[in-house]
Amino acid sequence: MNDNKNIVKPYDRYLSKVDVWGMAFGCMVGWGVFAMPGTTFLPVAGPAGTFISMTIGMFIMLVIAKNFSYLMARFSMTGGVYSYTKEAFGRDHAFISSWFLCLSYLTIVFLNGTALFFVVRILFSNIAQTGFHYTVAGNTIYLGETVVSVLVLAGTGLLSVAAKPLLQKLMTVLAVVLFAGIMIIAITCLPRSLANGALTSFGTGTIHKSYAIFSLIILAPWAFVGFEITSFDTAHFKFPMKKTGSILCTSIIAATLAYVLMTFASISCIPDGFSSWQEYITSLNGLKGVVSIPTFYAAQSILGTFGLVIMTITAVASILTGIIGGYRATTRVLSTMAEDQILSEKFSQTTYSILFIMVVAILLSLLGRNTLTWFVDLTSFGAIVGFGYTSAAAYKIAKTEGNRMIRISGLCGTLISILFVVVQLVPRLSAMEAMGSEAFLLLSLWCLLGFVFYWRTVTRSSLTEYSGISSSGIILFVLLMYSALMWLAKRLMSAETLPQMQHDLIIWGKVLLLIIFVGLAVMIYVQNVVREKHEAIEREKIHAVESSLAKSQFLFNMSHDIRTPMNAIIGYTNLAKEETNVDTIKEYLNKITGSSQHLLALINDVLEMSRIESGRSELEYMPADLCQLFESIGDLFTEQMKQKNMQFQVHTGQVQNRYVWCDKKNLNRVLLNILSNAYKFTPEGGTITASLWEVGTDENGYASYEMRIQDNGIGMSKEFAEKIIFCRSGIKRSYLSEDSSSLRL
């Protein structure tokens, strides 16, 4: 992720403590706080069981909030869960955590948007259920009901683009209105609720109390998801980060009060014709209008029209805060992944991300509220994944820092999240079906879509950016396969007859195989990409070793080569100092010049690092006088030979065609090395002869040359001579031009 984008100037710190509290509280408390008491809380555990469950859930969320506040204070950036997971476990796990958390936030947007369906039905009964309509999955959707949701989703999205500061202030105001409205209704209804046994009554069924309470505790991720979106805006806080923990705690406590008080309010008033709140709650499916939502009915019964207005304003505030917060959180997740090159860079632009979310939310809202209840379970799953990774990251980082308290809270949060995941994915572990067949299908499709982005990310990244590509890929694939199998199993179990089961098995079994095949194909491809990257790294390592060896060998040879012209320069310089004859001095100076040029060529070779790195040299052909080249090499050794009392002769007189095209520099080096070895291994008083021969010219104008260096040094044994590999260097054949003064290759 580009750190420059996380640098926030002082005037960008615009979020006060109230703003952050409103953001956290408003996202946690949506339409569910008014509807769930009648549809879920009361039927399963009753008011007393709901109070116990929500209290326990609150303490669980406070533990997870402790982990968030620790990481928020440690990482003052806008990456949130993605940044925390990446720091602790690498980019691949960060992708998984953000991918599922993005699903959770996206569902918050359109689920709250479609909640307006219920507000319209409560206030206007069946008035909106007229005119153009269509059916999706057996549910009838009326255009009149969808228009309100579309307008709100589109309006919120456009305001997020055009007037973001205004929308932030609006969210804070709406959060305060939401909390105030809940308190007004709760204070009004609480005396009657307590009289109706709010603190002693449990569920309407035969479920054991402890099992009912456990079943509602499992809903904690769904009930409290949203407070963590504040972690995406820590760079904009204009107060000390140490205050973050208390703000998150107060928002979670406020959300707990909202759920509990609205549950109590739901039993405060019982419509005519029902003997108890239990009978009323079990009959909700057959009721319409205000009476179908116990919280609305209680407000209207006690406060009349004023109460209904208060409840409507409060409910609309909860819906709008959920939509605004969902937009904000989803945008942050998308932009963070885009900055880290997981998604297209277009998503790093806030406007593009918001418009994308708006279009998707509007299209999904057209499917109808009943259809979108399939996504409710995915909200919980995405939240659990985010909570689990954050807690695990807090544990790992706190362990390295020696922070014992955070280690404990991190470990507890991780274990609790694992429990939530197990209950979410394994059927019949709670009183309510955690995930239906449609939810499993959507989860498998989301995993499949995640594989596509995972594929894109791996192919565009280096291995150093990942710490466990195989493990994260396996997690995605196993989850995809499990959810697809559970979807088919639930489809088959819901079949009423054996022929229908056989039909579903044939039809939907093909879909199952297609999903698994595509996921497996992508996984295999990703693994191949990873293998190729590993092989490329190994090749680079081998090349680096070979390059280092070549460099060492080159420098060793150079030190050997440089010594010879340096000795010649020193020798002729000493002779020139003692000489009085001008002509002889000029001769010495010419030889010094030749030796210096040879030395300069060697130094230039040392500076050509590209040739050193490649371990080889390229031939550079140019016109050269072979005889002069041979004699100049001899001049380099003449003085050294005299000092060692050696007889040294250079013969070039037999050559008729002395001008050729050759690589003078490298031919010089070959001759220099051979003569240097001859000088080194020939004892004092020995003989060394260097000869250049033109051994023949063919009818095509090509000549052949032979160069010999002979000495009477120590030589080599016959056995070693049979093993040694000779490399013949120089120009073997040359083209004799019409002008006898030059030869061309």
Q: What labels would you give this structure?
A:
745 residues; alpha+beta; Amino acid/polyamine transporter I; Heat Shock Protein 90; 3 domains; five-stranded mixed β-sheet; two-stranded antiparallel ribbon; 24 helices; elongated; disordered N terminus; disordered C terminus
How is this fold's topology laid out?
Blueprint: H1 17-28, H2 32-74, H3 81-89, H4 91-114, H5 116-124, E1 133-136, E2 139-142, H6 143-162, H7 164-195, H8 209-217, H9 220-224, H10 244-266, H11 277-282, H12 294-339, H13 350-365, H14 369-372, H15 376-401, H16 404-425, H17 437-459, H18 469-493, H19 498-578, H20 582-607, H21 609-614, E3 622-625, H22 626-643, E4 647-651, E5 659-662, H23 664-681, E6 687-697, E7 702-711, H24 718-723, E8 734-736, E9 743-744
Parallel strand pairs: 4-6
Antiparallel strand pairs: 1-2, 3-5, 6-7, 7-8, 8-9
Helix pairs in contact: 1-7, 1-10, 1-12, 2-8, 2-10, 2-12, 2-15, 2-16, 3-4, 3-15, 4-6, 4-12, 4-13, 4-15, 5-6, 6-7, 6-12, 6-13, 7-10, 7-12, 10-12, 12-13, 15-16, 17-18, 17-19, 18-19, 19-20, 19-22, 22-23
